[in-house]
Amino acid sequence: MSWVETLGRLPGIATARQYRREWLRTDITAGLVLTALLIPAGMGYAEAAGLPAYAGLYATIVPLLTYAVVGPSKILVLGPDSSLAPLIAAAVLPLAVADDPESALALAGVLGVLMGIILLVGGFLNLGFVTELLSKPIRLGYLNAIALIVVVGQLPKLLGFSVEAPGVLGEIAEIGKSVFNREIDPIAAAVGIGALAIIVAFRLWLPIVPGVLVAVVAAMALSAAADLTDDIDMVGALPEGLPLPSFGGITWHDVGHLVGPAAGIALIAFADTGVLSRTFASRHGEDVNGSTEMKAIGAANIAGGLFGGFPVSASGSRTPVAEQSGAHTQLAGVVGALAVLLFVLVAPGVTAYLPDAALGAVVIVAATALIDVGGMIRMWRMSTIEFGLAVAAFLGVALVGVLQGILVAIGLSFVAVVTRAWQPHRTELIRTGDRPGFHDIERHPGGQRIPGLVLVRFDAPLFFANGEIFDSYVRSVVAKAPTPVEWVIVAAEPITGLDTTAVDELVDLDRYLEGKGIRLAFAEMKGPIKDRLIRFGVNERFDATHFYPTIDAAVSAFHHRTGHTGRSTDR
């Protein structure tokens, strides 16, 4: 395949070939509306990650342009995100040279490149399924914890003072002390709280107007008019021109330390992006390939990391804005990226009048959108175990560390899965007079057993942890049967897995039953499980006469072989 054909297969090129003229006006309009959010949000999230504010603009421009060419989603908006900011800070700041923002920025660029490589390789290996490790409870707890971390981290900036303390609890304690000791800067606090009020007011009463842009412009206008640049902290002017690839001062030792965090950030970023991509694609009757999406996010992060950016993902706040503004294709993202680029090149000095407190307000409002108390309450009502996982993720991320907390929560998820498979639902099946088939005796205590037959169901794969439990359960049901047992039939459809330990338990059970003159049979066992029995060398003990396609067929065989009439006995 020639390089021309390869380029032609890229999603962005394919979309351009099918582009409709009637989309042009709405795409351009959506891109310009998007710009109002891209600039303040990008700068705010950069500062939340412990990086220079201008890095957020570079991390917006390059990934958007890259994704427009290689991304499968037509309206997904990439850029800095509040859910990644604490992860980036935790990975980069311990390695950065103190009071050297360029050192932190270079490390963040390497982090972005590493994350992009991991996603790119994962996409080619079709590893999109790994995001399933982040179950809903983990994501719920993680996002609530991230919101807490971000809000607590931005409060000092909003109120005009600084704190240095390890962990969220330490920061909260220091903030409380500073407020109690009246260390609040009244000017910075007025600007920050005023910006916060403007954003919230527009969101509540005039959502069609981007309150973030209004607040930022108002804060800059006030700073310039009142000459506040010497009174409170400002973001500062942007560097002139655009950054070139530069990782000066980065050692291989630094790269080694960043690989683990890059993998964690890649997992979080793609999990968020994958959900968002599928959601918006389904709204428009389209389908998005997960592996292609993974490769596209990887390519965007590599490009962004090389040109002064840091890890990015899809934005859950900016993508809906693009959709609501009428975006049809990635041209909206391209227009937004070019508008931000124009801002960087034409008006780099404007941000010298942007107060840090106003930017703190922008980040705080964005972070509060991650809070989902209602989701936690619903989780409690639906499943206490999953609620416990959400709480574990929340406490782990908030108190121990972002990456460590996520790993702990994933580990607990595996424990919960094993526990459910270890102690699954198991029951005896009986007949009822008012409906066909065989039913759970616990739900139908008035049902009837078939004399001489025990019919059981075990709702889990059979493996080393539950094989003995299955064996013991069948023996206990046989021992408690009201009439002498001649057959045991296992309704085996829920048994989706089988390991060597479980096979040994099946053989032991069959020998035990055989010694009592009882035949063991299986109904509705899946073909792959029967194949395993053959592969494990027990096909002589469990030959074809032990298996039946349906429970009814197995029961009919029992009646035929034993001569029972089928009359039932009460429980």
What does the model show?
The protein is mainly α and 571 residues long. It is built from 22 helices and ten strands. The protein starts with a helix and ends with a strand. The protein is elongated, with a radius of gyration of 31 Å. The chain has helices at residues 3-8, 11-17, 24-48, 55-70, 85-92, 101-124, 136-159, 167-180, 186-205, 211-226, 252-283, 290-306, 318-324, 331-346, 356-368, 373-382, 384-400, 402-422, 467-480, 500-515, 527-535, 551-562; strands at 78-79, 313-314, 426-430, 439-440, 448-449, 453-458, 487-491, 519-523, 547-548, 569-570. The strands form three sheets. Strands 4-3-6-7-8-9 form a six-stranded mixed sheet.
Distance between the termini: 71 Å
Structural class: mainly alpha
Q: What's the number of helices?
A: 22
Q: Tell me about the biggest sheet?
A: 6 strands, mixed
Chain-averaged pLDDT: 84
Q: Care to count the β-strands?
A: 10
CA-atom Rg in angstroms? 31 Å
**Unreliable spans:** 566-571
